Each structure stands twice: as C-alpha cells, then as structure tokens.
C-alpha cells in the first residue's frame, strides 16, 4: 500500500477504487503534480475515472492535511503528498522541475521577533530558484 494511502486510511478516509488510484499516482518523493497530471496518470489505471472525481479527491486530501497545495510558478496548483515531512522547494526557472529540499536550520527560527508583528508564526515556505543541471 502507498504511504499516502496508509496515512489517509489512518484518518478514517473511506477508500474506494477511484480514491485509491488517486492516492497511488500521487505517492513518492519529489512528487508535485497538477490535477490534470494526476488525472492523466489515474486514467491509465482506471479509464472511467473523471476529472471531477480527481479534483474532489485531491481537495479532500488537502482538507485532511495529508497533501499540500504548492504553487511555485504562479500557474497551476501542484499537489505534494509529503505534507507529513516538512520541506522546502528548489525550482528550476528553465524547465520547472521541483525538488524537495531540507534547510540546515529551522526556517521559522530565521524570522526575528521584531519582524513578526505580534503574529504567532506556525509555518514557513521557502522557494529556492535557479537552473537545474540540464538547464544550466
Ligand atoms: Zn531545468
Ligand atoms: Zn514538495
């Protein structure tokens, strides 16, 4: 069973064959797929799965907190199954490749108290941009 599917099950999510396929195609490391890409992969396994089902299922996974919505280029939202492992993103300005990366320190601790404006800060998203080896 995929890691994501296991986590969703642990939250009492009712697994149907359609939901299972969506969870399975979204599983893995460095996975950041648009809803259309998830649909295209899901159709290969379950030809009758509709785009609406894929969109709704992704929305439920996001509400459960098991999938992150990532928008690194201001274009289509991407879905990231690694919500349980805090990470940042390294994005290629050439081809759009996205890698999951981990900072050496806690990104939250890098925001000084006087820059917090009284906020209780609970999360930080950092996007590093550059060119990947193939585009450099
Ligand atoms: Zn590239
Ligand atoms: Zn990611």
TrEMBL record:
Gene3D superfamilies per UniProt: 3.30.1490.190, Winged helix-like DNA-binding domain superfamily/Winged helix DNA-binding domain
Keywords: DNA-binding, Repressor, Transcription, Transcription regulation, Zinc
One Pfam family hit: FUR
InterPro entries: FUR (IPR002481), Fur_C (IPR043135), WH-like_DNA-bd_sf (IPR036388), WH_DNA-bd_sf (IPR036390)
Domain of life per record: Bacteria
Family affiliation: Belongs to the Fur family.
Name of this chain's protein: Fur family transcriptional regulator
């Amino acid at each position: 069973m995929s890691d994501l599917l296991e986590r969703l099950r642990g939250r009492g999510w009712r697994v149907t064959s359609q939901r299972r396929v969506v969870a399975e195609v979204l599983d893995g490391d460095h996975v950041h797929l648009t809803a259309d890409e998830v649909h295209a992969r899901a159709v290969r396994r379950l030809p009758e799965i509709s785009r609406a089902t894929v969109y709704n299922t992704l929305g439920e996974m996001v509400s459960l907190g098991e999938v992150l919505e990532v928008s690194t280029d201001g274009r289509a939202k991407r879905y990231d199954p690694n919500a349980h492992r805090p990470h940042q993103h390294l994005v290629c300005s050439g081809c759009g490749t996205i890698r999951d990366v981990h900072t050496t320190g806690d990104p939250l601790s890098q925001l000084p108290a006087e820059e917090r404006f009284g906020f209780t800060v609970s999360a930080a998203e950092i996007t590093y941009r550059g060119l990947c080896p193939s585009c450099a």
